[in-house]
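Dock flavin-adenine dinucleotide; give full complex structure.
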Amino acid sequence: MKTFPYLTLDRQPGQLQPADADALATSISGGTLGPADMGYEEARKVWNAAVDRRPALIARCLTTSDVQAAVRFAAAHRMLLSVRGGGHHIAGHAVAEGGLMIDLSAMRAVAIDTSARTARVGPGALLADFDRAAQAHGLATPLGINSTTGVAGLTLGGGFGWLTRRYGMTADNLVGATVVTADGALHAVSADVEPDLFWALRGGGGNFGVVTSFEFKLHAVGPEVYAGLVVYPFTQARQVLRAWRDFTAKAPDELAVWTVMRKAPPLPFLPASVHGTDVVIFALVYSGSVAEGERAAAPVLAFGDRVASALGPTPYAGFQTAFDPLLAPGGRNYWKSNNFAALSDWAIDQMVGSAAALPGPECEIFVAHLGGAMARVPPQATPFAGRDARYIMNVHGRWSDARDDERVRSWARQVFEAAAPHATGGGYVNFLTEDEAERTAASYGPNFARLQSIKQRYDPGNLFRMNLNIAPLAA
Ligand SMILES: Cc1cc2nc3c(=O)[nH]c(=O)nc-3n(C[C@H](O)[C@H](O)[C@H](O)COP(=O)(O)OP(=O)(O)OC[C@H]3O[C@@H](n4cnc5c(N)ncnc54)[C@H](O)[C@@H]3O)c2cc1C
């Protein structure tokens, strides 16, 4: 009879007996997949194709009790455990070599309560699932800017996007959750019930258990918003970025203007002669009325001599998919990110210098415009400590040939190092790569010790370690 080789929590080799593997398979409604099964190759893939790991078994969970069975099984066998929401984390923590992967991707239901203005969201839901369901009622909560990202990982790490300046981070809008802890118990938590565990879920990552349902508050948004892109030639980068910095410092909360420096993609509104040339793109959303948005965003058209623009009334849920083609799954990716409380001329010059040497057509330097409601939440109110970050730069190294791995990664590291002297020194766990585990504590700043003591209470054996890990206090 065939045994299943696996890795323990300490990454030592183990063997599962066939009867144990069968018992797990029958206790999970969606069954399990092993390396020889059809569907295994697809199920083990994550967004970042540079991550290529082969779990020993994949538990295809459909219900909360499936999740409880899988957690208890991993704990009983001291099996390395990973949890997959949308599979988007750059570090690929959703999949562990030789581990048990709890695959939540089929638990995608979204239920909107229009009278309470809340949403109950399954742990496998993607941003598109949530946005579509909520926008059917003219409602939304702040999410990220790529619709194939998982709601689960985004929320557990903090989460920000176009609505964050107006309504805070994704985690700020979480009002309740159900979570399976390392002992297999189910906890329904909120600000009033097990408040420490609830607090830890609002930015502490997947360290505390498997969330099987999220409850969010919703806000009136759109369904049409004033949104779009304004494109400038890279030769004007210094001038337009300084104008953007000065403008965004005073922008109303309803307006978010992000920037990206990259080679121009073949967008229909860009002249063909511009495709593939270096450009500075401003992407913006005004979440109030369309008429006010047009007025508020007008200065973005006058930062310099623009190449083209495509601004106007746009369905919010549609704009949430605008960047999907540039960030599709299947590419090799490496990121480096810095938080900035303000952007000095010097920091802008560093970014522009780095963008002049993009190592490939898909590489880019992205800067999110934050502040507003996000900055008004005290840093200790949730684990996310970087409330002072008015701008977060994310260097997207993206390529397709493994022979370019080191070349692109080293460019991204250089961009990060070059800008670091003017950054806050903080970080954002949803953007940290696998080789940045040492930035975890700095990202949580004054909240790290509280997170460690909650980890000690709910996961003293560190079963949930495939993440930007917070070791239990005693460890
Ligand atoms: C293309 C792209 C665009 C992005 N844009 C933004 C953006 O605009 N704003 C932003 O804030 N972030 C953004 N991110 C980062 C994103 O927030 C993180 O990648 C996030 O972790 C994705 O969540 P996921 O569920 O898809 O990932 P996964 O890789 O499935 O999970 C991430 C982590 O959370 C854990 N986890 C997942 N589900 C659960 C659960 N139910 N219970 C417990 N632990 C769980 C996993 O084990 C893993 O450690 C983007 C990422 C990508 C790839």
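Observed: Residues 37 and 265 are 39 Å apart (CA to CA).
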